[in-house]
Amino acid sequence: MSDDKIRVSRRDILRGAGAAALVGATVPAQGAPAGKAPAGLSRVGPGPVECAFELNGKQKKITVEPRVTLLDALRDRVGLTGAKRICDRGACGGCTVWVDGQIVNSCMMLAVDARGKKVTTIEGLAQGDKLHPVQQAFVKHDALQCGFCTPGMIMTCAAMVDQGKAKDRASIQHELAGNLCRCGTYPHIFTAVEEAAR
Amino acid sequence: MKGFSYYTCADLSSATRALQELKGAAVKAGGTDLMDLLKERRLEPTDVVSLHAVKQVAVKGELSALATLQDVADSAWVKENFPAVHTAAAEAATPQIRNVGTVGGNLCQHSRCVYFRNRNFDCHATGGEGCPALDENAFHRYHAIFRGTHCVSAHTSNLAPALMAVGAQAHCLHPDGERTLDIGLLYDLNPAQGKPNHLTLRPGELIRAVQLKPTPLARNSIYVEFRERQSFDFAVASVAAAVHVEGGKVRQARIVCGAVAPIPYRARAVEDAMIGKALDPAKAAAAVVADAQPLAGNQFKVVILKRLVQRALEGLKA
User: Fold this and answer.
1) How far apart are CA A6 and CA B132, in angstroms?
2) Nearest CA distance, B35 vs chain A (angstrom)
3) CATH number of the domain to which A188 belongs
4) Distance between B143 CA and the closest CA of chain A, angstroms
5) With an 8 Å Cβ cutoff, are A42 and B7 in contact?
6) How confident is the model at residue A36 (pLDDT cuts 50, 70, 90)?
7) Complex ipTM over 0.90
8) Pairing between strand B249-258 and B265-266?
9) 116-155 in A: which are within 8 Å (CB) of B?
């Protein structure tokens, strides 16, 4: 999208409506007053907290309440919508991102827990125009149908290839157990990973 | 999810002291169980104490409670000396969850009972009366076949039965010091009304580490589970078993079943009856399920458990 055009997406409208609704609401104060914490503990929230972390190789600072998941922060605050909010319960893998090089369900992680960590999303996987070998193999082997699970699938598959865990079909299946594809594209995905791992 | 204050700390002793001050605070390690409960508003704590930033101290013979399930699955020492624990960790949940979920969190997870997880229902665990799963029309396919007094939920920890089978112990830190107890003693079959879990841990008490001792019994251990999906799922039933056989006779035996009772179910009477005799998997399997009291919708679990016990014992060196 070029910067000189004004484009409003469905997502922008929803975000605008949400912000408008929030203006009228006051958040009741809860718990101990800000900053006060038992000895040896540091406290943030329940109001917004500044979270600084490395996102796709660049430093990023966002301000979110402690209850906000990393997934919602990425999608709604940063605007990276590659990671998908599908089950929102850590069961489907559509929200898979890397945190310090490990695959995690970003829907089951609080954004505040990403402070000081390295987060990589599907948007940060390719090096410029150069796709990750797993991305290339997905294209070549037609390893997607509707495409909704694909960002999560690719993050999991790329991690297992990079970490040398894609030894054979059985190990690929074991490592891919946390990513569901309701179109049933699995055979093409397995083939793509096998090729990328070679 | 309701808003909460979020606390971090660098060491467990600060956390355990703070938890006495912060009444009703939730403890979060990997958070994979807690996030579910918060999102469903089953728990609505004002304060959440995170152990995320606590530095793990490596001690020989111990698994840190904050070690991830993947750490356990990747440990060559665990694989060689405690095969049941290795398999239980490697087969738990998904790779994404294993990278985050911890040993302590797996042991302390809340019931997966669909009625407990739904805030529209009340039961003994949430401070109410009765048990919605006992209704004959209830959905209790995945509930217990060995019951507590008030609860027929099924305890779904993979690690607990495996750690019990190999004779592991938990080092638990509380504000006044530390105590060590067998893993099985972490669980209370009949907790007080309004207590949302089956743990015997006192307020503010945290599991610091799990102590593992390599023994002939532990080395000859196995974990098997039955689940409805090949990829990942909570087990319909699981069995961790271990035997120490000498001269063709059983000297020591452990059979611990998961997902069949509100807490890990250890078949002590069956273990005792096996001592001094040749290993007889079929006989032991039949004995384990002899006391089962299934609900109308989960009688199939009795058959599955029986076959799992047999399969587990057949997989051990006799």
Assistant:
1) 55
2) 6
3) 1.10.150.120
4) 20
5) yes
6) confident
7) yes
8) antiparallel
9) none
